[in-house]
Amino acid sequence: MQSTRRDLPQLFSDARRWFDEGLLAALEAAGATPVSPTQVQLFAVLDGDGTTVSELARRMGVTRQTAHQAVHGLVAAGLLEQAPDPASARRRLIRRTGEGERVHHQARTILDRLEEQLAERISREAVDALRAALEAEWGRPPSPSP
């Protein structure tokens, strides 16, 4: 008989989707510029002072091309801009525009509300325990055994 127990990566993916869908629906209801889940993820890993496309791709776990496409969509929407990197003449930093900062702040407020809604559904203790487990130092992934 097959087990119906789902593994942790599947559960993490479902939890991520729950937050992403709630965030995107709330942003749409507020009249914000429509963005994709990939663009939401890009915003989440972007440093305040700017980040290179290569670093964004690494943090997101996607190709540079995928990160570049997400950046270009957000630049076209007026939420991001490209600026010279003072540390390297060859690189450009991606950073939020004033409107991008406003939307980022709005998204943070929505995510806080979603977390509170989750706490109402599964309990504050469960959310706090989940947060503590995810914030704990897990170390590097184990190496395969010979």
From TrEMBL:
InterPro entries: ArsR-like_HTH, HTH_MarR-typ, MarR/SlyA-like, WH-like_DNA-bd_sf, WH_DNA-bd_sf. Pfam families: MarR_2. Residues 5-139 form the HTH marR-type domain. PROSITE patterns: HTH_MARR_2. This is HTH marR-type domain-containing protein.
